[in-house]
Amino acid sequence: MEFDRQRLLVVGGSRGVGRAIALAGAERGADVAILYRSRSEEAEAVLQAIRAKGRRAVAVQADLAAAEATSAAINAAAEALGGLSLMAHAAGAMGQWASVAEMSPLDWGRYIAVDLNGCFHALHAAIPHLRQAKGGAILAISSIAAQMCQARNAQGAAAKAGVEALIRVTAKEEARHGIRANALAIGLTQTDMAQTAFDAWGPETSARIIKGIPLQRIATAEEVAGVACFMMGPACSYLTGKVLQLDGGQIIAG
């Protein structure tokens, strides 16, 4: 129970990797708050699953692109749990698979507003609560897209590279407050976003990409959650300012 007496905020906790982190955190002893944008039924299902593990759970709703709404939601979550000591940022936008020349500026701006600006808004609101807890840990879910820079994925590459830089700066700034900050850059994982990519690539290309991964499969959300909790946990108490790649070897395969 390495998260005993910890209060975990999962941004984007109603589905996918965020949901898996919320449940894994509860299994490790944390009380959990999830922030979600629109999927209230899925959020309620996550709350019920957390409470079934004997932990307190609360859900708050906000659009990460809106700074004031995000701040109000995170403040409400902290009040409900009696503070925050851990934060996992697992939210992201559904991108438009298009070249830079073909992508609409409107879609570019919408994606950056949620994926990069939204991460800043969440950090800005959560850090004061972690300071009040006299330390804690932040973990942002990034993507190997930031290193791979695939064609037709300028949004993902740029946004996640920004998130990783933001995390490194946060680690440097908040270390004196006892707060660690790291990022987990994941490869293809069994989520709605991965399915969107597969739909854009088509079955033949998708199969070829998966076959090219050294482990020849994609990750499960639970595998990602396990590593995320490890990075936030006491075993990694000297780890900060780092980006760990969890991709089944996809990057080294070229």
Distance, first to last CA? 39 Å
> At the third CATH level, what is the topology name?
Rossmann fold
Unreliable sequence segments: none
The CATH level-2 architecture is identified as 3-Layer(aba) Sandwich
Helical proportion? 40-55%
Q: What would you give as the CATH superfamily?
A: NAD(P)-binding Rossmann-like Domain
Secondary structure class reads alpha/beta
Radius of gyration: 17 Å
Provide a descriptive summary of the structure in words.
The protein is of the alpha/beta class and 254 residues long. The protein has a single domain, classed as NAD(P)-binding Rossmann-like Domain (Rossmann fold, 3-Layer(aba) Sandwich). Helix content is 50%, strand content 16%. Strands 3-2-1-4-5-6-7 form a seven-stranded parallel β-sheet, sandwiched between helices. α3 runs parallel beside α5. The radius of gyration is 17 Å and the shape is globular. The N and C termini lie far apart (39 Å). Belongs to the short-chain dehydrogenases/reductases (SDR) family. InterPro entries: NAD(P)-bd_dom_sf (IPR036291), SDR (IPR050259), SDR_fam (IPR002347). It holds the Pfam family adh_short_C2.
